[in-house]
Automatic annotation (TrEMBL), chain A:
InterPro entries: MetI-like, MetI-like_sf. The lineage of its organism: Bacteria, Bacillati, Actinomycetota, Actinomycetes, Streptosporangiales. This is ABC transmembrane type-1 domain-containing protein. Belongs to the binding-protein-dependent transport system permease family. The chain crosses the membrane at residues 95-112, 154-175, 187-206, 212-231, 275-296, 308-329. Signal peptide: none annotated. The keyword Cell membrane applies. Keywords: Cell membrane, Membrane, Transmembrane, Transmembrane helix, Transport. It is a multi-pass membrane protein.
Automatic annotation (TrEMBL), chain B:
GO terms for molecular function: ATP binding; ATP hydrolysis activity. Keywords: ATP-binding, Nucleotide-binding, Transport. The keyword ATP-binding applies. SMART domains: AAA. PROSITE patterns: ABC_TRANSPORTER_1, ABC_TRANSPORTER_2. SUPFAM superfamilies: P-loop containing nucleoside triphosphate hydrolases (SSF52540). PANTHER family: ALIPHATIC SULFONATES IMPORT ATP-BINDING PROTEIN SSUB (PTHR42788:SF13), TAURINE IMPORT ATP-BINDING PROTEIN-RELATED (PTHR42788). It holds the Pfam family ABC_tran. Residues 3-236 form the ABC transporter domain. This is ABC transporter ATP-binding protein.
Length: 339, 256
């Protein structure tokens, strides 16, 4: 349908052939527009009701006086915002359902070990785990471990953003860069991050560098691939429209490509956030002296089973919170994506 | 601004074929300054291609396009384009969309806001400045697109089937508004359509195109004694409509 805009001379957007860098592998969450919309609808019920009202303002009323010189123009009325009450109610109902599932899980965890359906030595009741957790918190041990873990995660995650976004923009925008880096990226992308952990340790030692590096490595991929997809996925018509207003490539990039790609980039950032926590544990299981991964490993080694579960719960909560934060942020940056 | 097309031909290379596809062949046409010209032709006859050439987004294979005697070398803010599919920036509000061209023109921020607001008023969208495109109806989006191309005050307005996707009522009201704006601003307008009624209603002249390869078949002068009342229902309007219909129809039969 849309012809490549010849005005964007030499810039390979639609032209970049996919064989060079096939970015459509689902495990990195690279999404095309439709997939993105689906997921947005899945976890954001409020958005739907927020847009529901706009349809009512659509129809222009029939015009009164005909004739080209007629000065009176029927103007659509400014809209009113949708009712908050209904939205709050829907959100409330959803929250109740979500909490119910968690309570059920907690109950099962408490009861099964107590009835000795499962061996309480290996899975102590939740209450014991929570007591152990409280003790770890009180002694300050938990804060130390969580702090160490968080610092590593955030460092790796932050560095990944700083490196992968610019690189992705370059690859998406300049065809020669994509052609040059394509095969190498393809090779590395298909190598599991954790498979490289020993290599990282071998080269960078057992210290912080190797831990942060492995997190960086794991985080970089979803960001990189989503950024490339975001840049390549910009509607050619928008590029054409901007070019027709005489925008030079640099401005075009700044004012059209970048804002259009932001939601897709953010999808990558959100996934990277999840990876930064997932990889963390593995990274901390080798040669660490602090961190939640270390705590879990160490507790298991010393048969402090409740402590081990306390560590696991903490890391889950941490991952959940981080993801929640990023989902929030992502939604903020992509409000216009909802159609 | 005066537009001249001198024997313009546009060919596209065809994949796996030595001979290129001729989209436009020997098109010559001139549009006077301040004139409203409509261009009708069947789908695929090269109307959008012609517009791309006028915009400077594409270059003619042969021939030349001149604006006030100066050959077109690329896009510029002296021409405003309204696309059929609106082409609004979805991450910008209506107001910010209208400001886009003004930013390209480096108009100071304060002035930009004022001008954009003024043009939104002009197209009847007062109060919708902060709405995003997905919160607007099709007709309203098209109004924003029109406001955007008017805002940076181009001498020429190029419109590619801008009202094709709208319902009849919205279309008619936008047609009236467009004429009103044209009369108020004195811009040169080239308006592409495949609707005969629309072409006759809007144009001072109607250029009729032939398909594959696209050529200008004939240019019909349109004038009414009075535009009061139901113009589309008058006998005169019917005559123009029939004349253009016949011209388009002749093209369906291959000329020996
Ligand atoms: N970039 C291109 N490469 C090859 N052929 C093209 C290209 N652009 C247009 N064409 C061809 O040129 C012809 C004219 O296309 P154009 O889009 O100008 O038609 P149109 O008159 O605007 O049609 P419509 O009314 O459907 O919009 C078509 O046959 C089309 O296939
Ligand atoms: Mg067209």
């Amino acid at each position: 349908m849309p012809r490549p805009s010849q005005g964007a001379g030499g810039l390979a957007l639609s032209a970049l052939d996919d064989s060079v860098l096939d970015y459509s592998v689902p495990d990195y969450g690279v999404q095309d527009d439709s997939a993105q919309d689906d997921s947005a609808q899945g976890d954001s019920g409020q958005d739907d009701s927020a847009q529901g009202d706009s349809g009512q303002d659509d129809d222009d009323p029939p015009r009164g006086a005909p004739g080209p010189a007629a000065p009176s123009v029927t103007r659509p009325r400014p809209p009113e915002r949708p009712g908050r009450g209904r939205r709050a109610l829907l959100a409330g109902r959803r929250a109740v359902r979500a909490v119910a599932a968690l309570l059920l899980l907690a109950a099962v965890w408490e009861i099964l070990p107590r009835l000795e359906v499962v061996d309480p030595t290996f899975l102590p009741p939740l209450s014991e785990v929570l007591l152990a957790w409280a003790e770890l918190l009180r002694s300050g041990e938990l804060a130390d471990h969580a702090g160490a873990s968080l610092a590593r995660s955030l460092a790796g995650f932050g560095l990944a953003i700083a490196l992968a976004v610019p690189l992705g923009l370059l690859i998406g925008w300049y065809r020669p860069v994509a052609q040059f880096l394509g095969p190498v990226l393809e090779l590395f992308r298909n190598t599991a991050a954790l498979a490289l952990l020993p290599v990282f340790v071998l080269i960078l030692g057992l210290g912080e560098t190797s831990k942060v590096s492995i997190i960086l490595y794991a985080c970089a991929w979803p960001i990189l691939l989503n950024t490339v997809a975001g840049v390549k996925g910009v509607d050619p018509l928008l590029i054409k429209s901007a070019t027709s207003m005489g925008l030079k490539p640099y401005r075009l990039f700044q004012k059209v490509i970048l804002p259009a790609a932001v939601p897709t980039i953010f999808t990558g950032v959100r996934l990277a956030g999840a990876y930064s926590i997932l990889v963390l544990v593995a990274a901390e299981m080798v040669g660490a002296k602090a961190g939640l991964g270390y705590l879990i490993n160490y507790a298991q080694f010393n048969f402090r089973v409740p402590d081990m579960y306390a560590g696991i719960i903490t890391i889950s909560a941490l991952g959940l919170l981080f993801n929640l934060l990023l989902v929030r942020l992502e939604r903020r940056f992509s409000t216009w994506r909802t159609t | 601004m005066k537009i001249e097309l001198l024997d313009v031909t546009k060919e596209f290379p065809v994949r796996d074929s030595g001979t290129p596809f001729t989209a436009l062949s020997g098109v010559s046409l001139s549009v006077a300054s301040g004139e409203f010209l409509t261009l009708v032709g069947p789908s695929g006859c090269g109307k959008s291609t012609l517009l791309d050439l006028l915009t400077g987004l594409a270059t003619p294979t042969r021939g030349e396009i001149r604006l006030d005697g100066v050959p077109v070398t690329g896009p510029g803010l002296d021409r405003g384009i309204v696309f059929q599919q609106y082409a609004l920036f979805p991450w910008r509000t209506a107001l910010a969309n209208v400001e886009f061209g003004l930013e390209a023109k480096a108009v100071p921020r304060r002035e930009r806001r004022e001008l954009a607001g003024h043009y939104l008023d002009l197209v009847g969208l007062t109060g919708f400045a902060e709405r995003y495109p997905h919160e607007l109806s099709g007709g309203m989006r098209q109004r924003v697109a029109i406001a955007r191309s008017l805002a940076y005050d181009p001498a020429v307005l190029l419109m590619d089937e801008p009202f094709a996707a709208l319902d009849a009522q919205t279309r008619e009201s936008l047609q009236e508004e467009l004429l009103r704006i044209w009369q108020a601003t004195g811009k040169t307008v080239v308006f592409i359509t495949h609707g005969i009624d629309e072409a006759v209603y809007l144009g001072q002249r109607v250029a009729v195109m032939t398909p594959a390869p696209g050529r200008i078949r004939e240019v019909v002068e349109v004038s009414f004694d009075s535009r009061e009342g139901d113009l589309r229902g008058t006998a005169r309007f019917g005559e123009y409509r029939h004349a253009i219909w016949s011209l388009l129809r002749e093209e369906a039969v291959p000329v020996a």
